[in-house]
Automatic annotation (TrEMBL):
<feature type="region of interest" description="Disordered">
    <location>
        <begin position="1"/>
        <end position="24"/>
    </location>
</feature>
<dbReference type="InterPro" id="IPR006429">
    <property type="entry name" value="Phage_lambda_portal"/>
</dbReference>
<dbReference type="Pfam" id="PF05136">
    <property type="entry name" value="Phage_portal_2"/>
</dbReference>
<dbReference type="GO" id="GO:0005198">
    <property type="term" value="F:structural molecule activity"/>
</dbReference>
<dbReference type="GO" id="GO:0019068">
    <property type="term" value="P:virion assembly"/>
</dbReference>
<protein>
    <submittedName>
        <fullName>Phage portal protein, lambda family</fullName>
    </submittedName>
</protein>
């Protein structure tokens, strides 16, 4: 049963007439952000079309590659993110879902050992070109993602002598993926990616020019169409950081601050040239006695007083010609605000790529423990985000294919009563990916924190061991058991007060003298 609509009464205690739709629209406040007056008058945003997107992406990628190769701070930014995100590799630890599979702990540990050994063998032959191990391939992939905005890897099955696995990964330069010239009219192909009904990637068009020169005028005959998926396996791995709903290609992390990088690099170069010139200024001496000491330097030629010096070595003393009066040139460059100005620009650049100033400039001279740790924690949030993108978009799909092939080759045996591999593939191929160690700002404080976290079940021994670069925790436990047995045999007594160190109060933090200021 539907009730009558509520009745509203006015100040005169009479019912108000129902409000109908406003024919002139709503009475919303006009937003200044949409205005075209004052400083916003020339702010007209240009948007890409499917025809201009590839050209712009290539220009941005080319400029970013140039910055990463020739700009000190851009190179530092890329290297810092790459080394701290991947380092010597994201290491997998097999974690099959024993509950779903109906396994005991012993059966689970046996499967983990077999899976990790199969991975250890495969990662050495993972590169189709035979040059890179998997962790090196991951490092290159992330660097390409940062510089060019994305990376492509094609899973291939190569049967060759000396290989244990057929699976290998072929690297593809992102600039080779674009729309053939005779397919630009197709609405389902955008910037080299062929899409399906729901916006999913169906295939990628990869240029294979005969002369090796990638041109935008190549027809489809010079392309290979690579399917995005082949059955349940990826036919091409395309990874990029998506920042909008319908984004289909990646953008360099350097793009927002690219102009700052370029202008700052030019500014530093000009300041350096100015400093070189300033340090090379000679002393110019005028003599008022044409027959005196300078006579030997004067010629009887009447054109002698027109002598000009085109070069001057640092510290040179030049005697001038008669009737010429020198002026001492002074250089005030760089100015007193040089350091603070450069630091401010670097902080703006760092904010655009998510990195603190200390990481980009490698300058921790103005920090104490708390500020250094805060800066590194902020950086590690960004590193963790890239690690998650790599794991979900690259590492885990590859791990799944490796474990599948290892099972097919008989390198992994399943306990009796286990479900079929393809019926429970996700349970079999579950894994944790351990990032490289973070390093310690204050080792004692952080080790104490890790020990207490393990004791109170906040962290695991496996996770802490891997993060600190200690390898596999099970191997460590076996090694420690052996060491303790040897200590007992040799009557080596560990210090009785070792555990007491955990509960000693930390020393008060010392501020660096130059860390405090106005």
């Amino acid at each position: 049963m539907t009730g009558n609509p509520p009745v509203l009464y006015g100040p005169d205690n009479r019912p108000l007439p129902p409000a109908g739709p406003n024919p002139f629209g709503s009475y919303e406040v006009s937003r200044t952000a949409a205005g075209l007056r004052g400083t916003l008058s020339n702010w007209l945003v240009a948007r890409n079309t499917k025809y201009s997107a590839r050209r712009e992406r290539q220009v941005v990628a080319d400029r970013a590659e140039d910055l990463a190769a020739n700009d000190t701070h851009a190179a530092s930014s890329i290297d810092s993110i790459t080394v701290n995100t991947v380092g010597t590799g994201l290491m997998p630890q097999s974690r099959p879902n024993a509950k779903v599979l109906g396994w005991t702990d012993e059966e689970s540990r046996e499967f983990q050992a077999q899976a990790e050994w199969a991975w250890h063998i495969w990662q050495g032959e993972s590169d189709a070109a035979g040059r890179l191990t998997f962790w090196q391939n991951t490092l290159v992939a992330l660097r390409t993602l940062l510089v060019k905005g994305e990376f492509f890897r094609l899973p291939l099955m190569i049967d060759a002598p000396g290989r244990t696995f057929s699976l290998s990964l072929q690297s593809v330069d992102p600039l080779r993926v674009y729309t053939p010239n005779d397919f630009t009219w197709k609405n389902n192909i955008k910037d080299g990616v062929e899409f399906g009904r729901y916006g999913e990637a169906v295939a990628y068009w990869i240029a294979n020019p005969d002369d090796g020169f990638v041109s935008m005028d190549l027809p489809s005959a010079n392309f290979s169409r690579t399917p995005a998926r082949v059955g349940h396996r990826p036919g091409a791995i395309h990874t990029f950081v998506s920042k909008s709903e319908e984004q289909n290609r990646g953008v360099s992390v350097l793009a927002p601050s690219m102009k700052f990088f370029k202008d700052l690099n030019d500014y530093l170069d000009f300041e350096l040239v100015g400093a070189i010139i300033a340090s090379s200024f000679p002393v110019f001496v005028e003599t008022t006695d044409p027959t005196g000491s300078a006579q030997g330097l004067q010629s009887t030629d009447p054109e002698a007083d027109k002598t000009r010096y085109h070069e001057a070595a640092p510290g040179t003393i030049l005697y001038g010609n008669l009737n010429e009066k020198p002026h001492v040139l002074k250089s005030d460059r760089p100015g007193g605000s040089f350091d603070s100005f450069v630091e401010r620009i670097l902080r703006a650049i760092g904010a655009s790529i998510g990195m603190p100033y200390e990481v980009i400039a490698k300058d921790f001279s103005k920090t104490n423990y708390s500020s250094a740790r805060a800066a590194l924690l902020e950086a590690w949030r960004v590193f963790g985000m890239y690690q998650k993108w790599l794991v979900d978009g690259f590492c885990q799909p590859v791990w799944r294919m490796v474990i599948e092939e290892a099972w097919l080759r008989g390198m992994i045996t399943l306990p009796k009563g286990s479900p079929d591999f393809y019926d429970a593939m996700h349970a079999y191929t579950r894994a944790d990916w351990i990032p490289p160690r973070k390093g310690n700002v204050d080792p004692l404080k952080e080790i104490k924190a890790n020990i207490l976290a393990i004791q109170h079940n906040i962290a695991t021994l496996a996770g802490v061991t891997a993060e600190m670069g200690g390898g596999d925790y099970e191997t460590n436990l076996h090694q420690r058991s052996s060491e303790r047995g040897l200590e007992k045999d040799l009557d080596v007594i560990p210090p009785a007060d070792a555990a007491a160190i955990l509960y000693e109060p930390d020393e008060p933090e010392q501020e660096l003298p130059h860390a405090t200021g106005n």
